[in-house]
Each structure stands twice: as structure tokens, then as C-alpha cells.
Automatic annotation (TrEMBL):
GO terms for biological process: NADP+ biosynthetic process. This is Acetoin catabolism protein X. One of its GO terms (molecular function) is NAD+ kinase activity.
Length: 383
């Protein structure tokens, strides 16, 4: 692990899918994203990170951030020279050790403007052995980073739509907490929290190839996996409740929107609980003609409460693969349709505990306060 070195993967086009058309979901401008990244970088610097490797992109996000960092560093250096020149002390103390920004470098990955950019950046960060990766995006972006850099702890910031995985925390505090761990000031025992995930396995049998061999497809979900009868991938986002057949979750809170809210508003399960949950649904949200079925209004999209018909609600135990037998369908991972399966395919889903680690921002900030980590060696608190 390269102590004091952090990766940053910021999805420049998150929160721009069809949910902006069918409901009152919001979005972020490029300037909004630049501002968020700069706040995180300032926190990283304050916590002792000296270098950040950032994913390049086509939208201009990384270029704008690089320009602002260079401008800020130049202004800080000029201020330091001016203060030293006017100081009457024989040996003026160092200025700005925790101010400004860390050295910012762009990862040498090809830019495609697709999900492959996130995948390449995650793999590169793992190869560089960065201490942690800060992720800005939706649940889907976080899923890709974990899938391709599972050995590296991550800190998440939500810039997507129905985000359940990244918690809502002020960006500069995310940067500071990440830095305190990445620089070795806070131990992994204090800083890191284990997380569950869903492991999907699809053994294709309907189209086995010339030699009769079946193809194995593996994927993951951090929050939820949904089975939908809508096999047209299209914009990927799942927002029509009458197409849903089942939803499986690692955790679900009543404070979340999206697919996991179906369970969050009926049988919540914590991130720290060993188990998960799954619910099977009827395609008929008007349950007046159905038995043993509950009708529930849920916020599948921000600003849109839609009805679902719950048939069964069960516990998902860890390390026990569950067969998914819903016929020909699409499987959505963390809210986006990713795989089409046929009735003959062998499909299983398994809840994996302690699968990857995230940085616990609150625990890091509490340790920072208890140990006065933002005070310098002279006992003076850094500005």
C-alpha cells in the first residue's frame, strides 16, 4: 500500500438517465462536480495525503479540477513567499503544509466515455496500490469500482439518483477522513467497516456454443438485485413497478429511495446485520383480486411514489446461494438492467459478508477529535 496516495474516480455523467424525464429527479452541473471534487481534495490535503491519482474523462471535469488545483497551489506559494519576506523571525515555520491541495495526477488510462473508463481507473488504482479510492457517482459507479478493485478501501459520495450505498456526508469531511486513514494516522481497525454484497452467477444453457460448453457469467451488486420482466435494457434504469418480479437486498432503510425502499418500508435490514432480505412481487399492483398480498406505495424514483404488490418477504442468509427461477427476464444490479437470462439458464444469487471495506467517516472524525490530529507539533491547531 502506498501510504499517503489516494485514487479518485468521479463519474462525470452520473444522474443523467431517464429518471429525469419520468419524475422530478435532479442533476448536477459540471461546475457542481468540480466544486465537490475540490472540497474533497482540500480535505485530503488537510489530513496528510500528498498525492491523488484521478480518472481522466471526456467532459472536462478532470481538466477543470487540474486547472483549479494548479491555480490554488500557485496562489498558496505566492502567499507563503510574501509572509516569509515580511516575517521578522529568523527561521519562519513552514506555511501551508495542510492547506491547498495534494499533488494531482491523471491516471494513464484510455478515455472512452463509457463504463470502461471507471473499470480501467479502478484496476489502475489497485495496480498502483493506492491506500484508498474516493468514488463520486451513483450506486452503479460504486459497484464497478468494488468489482474491479475489491482489495482497496473506498469512500463514497453520491452524485447519482437513487443512491442507497454512499452515505450523505459533507465532501471536505470525506476527504479528511480518507486522508487520516490513508496517511496512517488512524488504524484500519478504527477506520474500516466491512460490507456485504450480492454475488450473481449465471450458467448459460440456452446458448451453449458450438462445443456444447456452458458460459459462466459472474457479477455483483452492493445494495440490490432485481428481477424484471422487461428484457429490453434500453436506458438500464428500472422504474416501472409492474415489471418487477423480485428484489434482493444486502441492506435496506426506510430513509432510502429506489428499489431497496420496497424492503426498507416493510422490513428494514441494517448494513451491519449478517443477513439480507428478499421480496417477491406480483405484476398486478391492484391487489383487490389477490390473496396473501400486500399493497405498498414506495418512492421508486425521487418524487414518484408508485404501488407494488408484495407476495412474500423473506430473510436472505449469508453464504447460501439462492436459485432465481423467474423464467426469461432481465436482472438489474443496483438499479440498472445488466443481464438478460433465459428460462433454461441456471441463475443463483449469494449474500457474501465481509466482502469489501469502506472508510467509516464518522469513526475517523471521532478519532480525529479525540486525538487532536489537526493540531501541529507545537500544539497549535492548523487553520
Amino acid at each position: 500500500m502506498n501510504q499517503g496516495v489516494v485514487g479518485m474516480i468521479a463519474n462525470p455523467v452520473s444522474a443523467r438517465d431517464i429518471r429525469r424525464v419520468v419524475a422530478a429527479s435532479g442533476s448536477l452541473t459540471l461546475n457542481d462536480r468540480v466544486s465537490i471534487v475540490l472540497k474533497i481534495l482540500s480535505g485530503l490535503k488537510a489530513g496528510g495525503v500528498h498525492q491523488v491519482w484521478m480518472m481522466p474523462d471526456k467532459t472536462g471535469l478532470s481538466d477543470m479540477v487540474q486547472r483549479e488545483v494548479n491555480r490554488g497551489q500557485a496562489a498558496l506559494a505566492k502567499s507563503a513567499i510574501s509572509k516569509q519576506a515580511s516575517s521578522k523571525q529568523a527561521a519562519p515555520k513552514k506555511v501551508g503544509e495542510r492547506q491547498g491541495f495534494p499533488e494531482l495526477k491523471l491516471l494513464p488510462t484510455p478515455i472512452t466515455g463509457t463504463d470502461q473508463d471507471t473499470i480501467s481507473a479502478a484496476r489502475e488504482c489497485e495496480e498502483y496500490k493506492v491506500s484508498a479510492i474516493v468514488v463520486l457517482g451513483g450506486d452503479g459507479t460504486h459497484r464497478l469500482v468494488v468489482k474491479h478493485a475489491r482489495n482497496t478501501p473506498i469512500t463514497g459520495y453520491s452524485t447519482g439518483t437513487n443512491n442507497a450505498f454512499p452515505e450523505t456526508i459533507e465532501p471536505s469531511l470525506i476527504g479528511l477522513a480518507t486522508a487520516l486513514y490513508a496517511s496512517g494516522q488512524i488504524s484500519k481497525e478504527t477506520a474500516l467497516s466491512p460490507n456485504k454484497l450480492l454475488q450473481l452467477r449465471i450458467q448459460e444453457k440456452a446458448d451453449s456454443g458450438a462445443e456444447g460448453k456452458t458460459a459462466l457469467i459472474e457479477d455483483i451488486a452492493l445494495v440490490d438485485a432485481a428481477i424484471t420482466s422487461d428484457r429490453f435494457v434500453g436506458s438500464k434504469a428500472v422504474w416501472q413497478p409492474d415489471t418487477l418480479r423480485a428484489v434482493y437486498v444486502t441492506f435496506a432503510s426506510a430513509m432510502q429511495v429506489g428499489l431497496s425502499s420496497i424492503i426498507g418500508l416493510s422490513a428494514p435490514v441494517e448494513r451491519t446485520d449478517p443477513c439480507g432480505r428478499f421480496v417477491e412481487l406480483s405484476s398486478d399492483a391492484d391487489v383487490s383480486s389477490l390473496t396473501n398480498t400486500s399493497r405498498l406505495m414506495v418512492p421508486l424514483i425521487p418524487g414518484a411514489f408508485l404501488p407494488v404488490a408484495i407476495q412474500t418477504l423473506s430473510t436472505l442468509n449469508p453464504n447460501q446461494p439462492v436459485g432465481l427461477r423467474y423464467g426469461s427476464a432481465a436482472i438489474a444490479l443496483d438499479g440498472e438492467r445488466e443481464h438478460i437470462v433465459e428460462a433454461l439458464d441456471d441463475v443463483t444469487l449469494e449474500l457474501i459478508p465481509n466482502a469489501f471495506f469502506t472508510i467509516n467517516v464518522e469513526a475517523c472524525m471521532n478519532a480525529c477529535a479525540a486525538r487532536m490530529l489537526l493540531c501541529n507539533q507545537q500544539g497549535e491547531c492548523d487553520a
